């Protein structure tokens, strides 16, 4: 057996075990932190009692159950799934577009989702409808971008980016119209808050419904890891390696758009993570997508759980999580870029 | 001669209605090196891309092993014909070995995990090309000449017997150019076939079994270097005056007047 191979495998295994351990630790910490603080011992005791390893503490079991399972767990699960999905989508976009600056918003998905959400808020629709409109807006904006790209002739990375920019600009303009037309006393603040992102109103049911879809989208992209590597090397490179370029590109864009639109529809706008987490993961496991996509998922999940915990516990009132991801994401991104730069220049 | 890749009377027009190829016919097979010469913009890359099936000709046809290219799946083509791009750059720092491992994609499929044996065969190919020491280096950091070798190693990992190379000498220093031509001749001895485009008449003269001249969308001449490549041909192709020097071993070199 090749020594290089054993070293490579051992290193990768160790990195992934480390990431999983960090994810579990972050989640347990996030469970304990909040307006009502618990010790990590309380959390572990509660988890052990739920697993029937120990007898529940009769005096505090209800309280623990209420706060942990009803309030904090849904947010932590949501943060994990959404952080993972946005990061995987960003990593996939970066490979498809051969561009380290690509992120889930590149083709207009986030702009379209914002417009959809704002429209539903102005129409005074229910929360579920806001999410549905946001999802539809995200998908619709990318679809429009792809159609516009088709007007430029032969579809390529550049025409798709241009199409996405045009579509994104259109939806941003449309969003401005909605903001202008919105009632400044209740609708406008609702739109603005939505745009800043929050995991506060996600229920456990919603997560249990959407998580399988998002995991399926992420798994599909991870399975396309190797052909995505070929595509990241270039279109002709991929063709020369027997990869059907158009089918792979649109398939990957569809899956990445699906999971990012779904994420944003649940949480509102959460920026930066889809750009920054893949770079961080790339520094750890290298650019090969078969490893990069799962690693990005773990990094994104850890990062968003941490950001959401800060969002809900830093100050007396909750800070919108989009602000936190931007504030934390920018310095983290600068640090990562200092090291990643040499890879693509 | 069944394993040949053959283009017949290809016609191709670019978006600006400029007819790039107008009846180009060219073929090569295992055990031979064919050089394609032509001025900038003469359609060399287009011809190569058509022969690889990356583009569809408006008229004419490409056949691989006697069967129309359109009847082949892209993956089956990739098992037989490998493509080495011109001045290739990667946006992400893949390691050299990982680039070579991409060559197993057409045969192993998308989902088969990389095994220790794959590592060994990739390293064996790198060793064969004298660049094993680069295996763990980033593909974005090695020199242009080394990148060409990495791409050739990947092509060999594909198991393809035919190589299509777009200006492999471009950007290489003189030594790397000569070493690359030697390598191509070694590969030819092992039964591989190479079609390359080049701007170096001397290299073409020295290393090729035949030379094809692409002029005004057609292959104006195609044959043994001595028969095809002379001062008049160079003047026609590149619009410069040259004089021919003949080396003692009979090879020709060209000097600008």
Automatic annotation (TrEMBL), chain A:
Species this chain originates from: Rhodoblastus acidophilus
Protein name: Iron chelate uptake ABC transporter family permease subunit
Main location, first listed in the record: membrane
Position of the signal peptide: none
Keyword Transport part of the UniProt annotation: yes
Keywords: Cell membrane, Membrane, Transmembrane, Transmembrane helix, Transport
TM stretches of this protein: 73-93, 105-127, 133-152, 159-178, 253-277, 289-307, 319-337
Ranges in coiled-coil conformation: none
Annotated membrane topology: Multi-pass membrane protein
């Amino acid at each position: 057996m090749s020594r290089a191979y054993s070293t490579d495998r051992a290193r990768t295994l160790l990195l992934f075990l480390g990431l999983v351990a960090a994810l579990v630790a972050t989640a347990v910490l996030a469970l304990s932190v909040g307006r009502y603080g618990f010790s990590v011992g309380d959390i572990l005791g509660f988890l052990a009692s739920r697993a029937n390893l120990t007898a529940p503490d009769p005096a505090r079991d209800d309280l623990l159950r209420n706060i942990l399972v009803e309030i904090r767990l849904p947010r932590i699960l949501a943060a994990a799934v959404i952080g993972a999905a946005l990061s995987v989508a960003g990593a996939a976009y970066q490979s498809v577009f051969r561009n380290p600056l690509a992120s889930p918003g590149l083709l207009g998905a986030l702009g379209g989702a914002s417009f959809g959400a704002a429209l539903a808020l102005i129409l005074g629709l229910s929360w579920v409808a806001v999410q549905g409109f946001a999802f539809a807006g995200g998908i619709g904006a990318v679809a429009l971008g792809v159609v516009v790209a088709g007007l430029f002739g032969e579809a390529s990375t550049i025409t798709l980016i241009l199409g996405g920019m045009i579509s994104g600009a259109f939806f941003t303009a449309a969003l401005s119209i909605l903001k202008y037309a919105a009632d400044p006393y209740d609708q406008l603040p609702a739109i603005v808050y939505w745009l800043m992102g929050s995991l506060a109103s996600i229920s456990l049911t919603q997560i249990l419904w959407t998580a399988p879809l998002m995991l399926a989208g992420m798994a599909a992209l991870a399975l396309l890891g190797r052909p995505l590597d070929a595509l990241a090397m270039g279109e002709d490179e991929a063709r020369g390696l027997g990869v059907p370029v158009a089918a792979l590109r649109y398939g990957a864009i569809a899956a990445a758009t699906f999971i990012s639109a779904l994420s944003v529809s649940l949480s509102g706008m959460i920026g930066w993570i889809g750009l920054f987490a893949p770079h961080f993961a790339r520094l750890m496991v290298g650019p090969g997508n078969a490893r990069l996509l799962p690693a990005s998922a773990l990094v994104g999940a850890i990062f968003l759980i941490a950001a959401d915990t800060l969002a809900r516990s830093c100050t007396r009132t909750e800070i919108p999580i989009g602000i936190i991801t931007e504030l934390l994401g920018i310095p983290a991104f600068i640090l990562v870029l200092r090291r990643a730069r040499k890879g693509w220049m | 001669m069944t394993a040949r890749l053959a283009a017949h009377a290809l016609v191709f027009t670019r978006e600006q209605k400029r007819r790039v190829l107008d009846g180009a016919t060219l073929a090569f097979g295992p055990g031979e090196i064919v050089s394609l010469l032509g001025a900038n913009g003469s359609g060399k890359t287009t011809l190569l891309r058509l022969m690889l099936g990356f583009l569809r000709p408006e008229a004419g046809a490409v056949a691989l092993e006697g069967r129309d290219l359109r009847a082949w799946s892209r993956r089956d083509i990739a098992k037989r014909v490998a493509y080495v791009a011109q001045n290739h750059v990667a946006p992400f720092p893949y390691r050299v070995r990982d680039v070579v491992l991409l060559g197993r994609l057409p045969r192993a499929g998308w989902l088969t995990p990389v095994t220790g044996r794959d590592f060994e065969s990739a390293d064996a190919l790198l060793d064969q090309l004298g660049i094993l020491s680069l295996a763990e280096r980033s593909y974005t950091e090695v020199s242009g000449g080394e990148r060409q070798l990495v791409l050739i190693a990947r092509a060999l990992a594909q198991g393809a017997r035919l190589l299509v190379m777009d200006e492999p000498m471009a950007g290489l220093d003189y030594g790397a150019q000569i070493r690359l031509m030697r390598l191509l001749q070694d590969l030819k001895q092992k039964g591989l076939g190479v079609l390359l485009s080049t701007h170096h008449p001397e290299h073409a003269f020295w290393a090729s079994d035949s030379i094809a001249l692409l002029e005004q969308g057609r292959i104006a001449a195609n044959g043994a270097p001595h028969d095809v490549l002379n001062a008049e041909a160079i003047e026609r192709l590149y619009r410069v005056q040259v004089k021919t020097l003949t080396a003692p071993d009979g090879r020709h070199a060209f000097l600008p007047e």
